[in-house]
UniProtKB/TrEMBL annotation:
A Pfam family assignment: DUF502
Segments crossing the lipid bilayer: 21-42, 62-82
Keyword entries, A-Z: Membrane, Transmembrane, Transmembrane helix
Name listed for the protein in its UniProt record: DUF502 domain-containing protein
Keyword Transmembrane attributed: yes
Length: 232
């Protein structure tokens, strides 16, 4: 019976070591797998359209991961550079005028372009803040991403009473790829200090990974406990 606690302690240490190793290795392995999966996906789309005389794999006779992705990035950068000058802008406008004449294609093109311009625009304030709203009933709070002030007809109709309305996006847990777009009074939203990335991690983990919060003005706790006099 004297060996039982020691055996339990050894088993506990092995279990803790395994869990620690799993926490270290699993995110690294998943990140590497996702990275190479994305590279292979990009290569499968771009590499078949590369002329053979310009393909490095033809001369080396060895598959080089990332060749298609690198070429795609270079081409996109060149197109962006050309699209800024007068001639390139004229070509882009001509191509868009053709797309705008196609009933179904123009709807898809305008929607995708508007989404990308909103997301990639440097001055955009979309999803740069997180907040809390009472949902689905009073006393129950849900995490939302702030998309911006209500605009256009929505602002004209909802702001008629003088209450400023803002748009919020309420995603589900644990996959925040869909959700509800709602317009609520600004006074009903509790703004948070956490970043959208921290809010996304909180949602994906189901509340298990909460960002560290340090209230402004609160002193930093001491790393070493103060030494108390003997007898106290």
């Amino acid at each position: 019976m004297s060996d039982s606690p020691e055996r339990i302690s050894l088993a506990g240490r092995l279990r803790n070591n395994f869990l620690t190793g799993l926490i270290i290795c699993a995110p690294l392995a998943i990140t590497i797998w996702l990275t190479f999966t994305f590279i292979d996906w990009a290569d499968s789309w771009v590499t078949p359209y590369i002329p053979q005389r310009y393909d490095p794999q033809y001369y080396l006779d060895v598959a080089i991961p990332g060749t298609g992705l690198l070429i795609a990035v270079l081409l996109i950068t060149i197109v962006g550079f050309l699209g800024k000058n007068l001639i390139g802008r004229s070509i882009v406008n001509f191509g868009e005028s053709i797309l705008h004449r196609m009933p179904l294609v123009r709807t898809i093109y305008r929607s995708v372009k508007q989404i990308l311009e909103t997301v990639l625009k440097e001055q955009s304030t979309s999803f740069k803040k997180c907040g809390l709203i009472e949902f689905p009933s009073p006393g129950m709070w849900a995490l939302v991403f702030i998309s911006g002030d209500a605009q256009g007809e929505i602002a004209a109709k909802l702001n008629a009473d003088g209450e400023e309305m803002i748009g919020v996006f309420l995603p589900p847990t644990p996959v925040p790829t869909a959700g509800f777009l709602m317009f609520v009074p600004r006074s009903k939203v509790i703004m948070l200090d956490m970043t959208p990335e921290e809010g996304a991690r909180l949602l994906i983990s189901g509340g298990l990974i909460a960002p560290e919060y340090k209230p402004q003005g609160q002193p930093v706790p001491a790393l070493v406990a103060p030494i108390r006099p003997a007898g106290t």
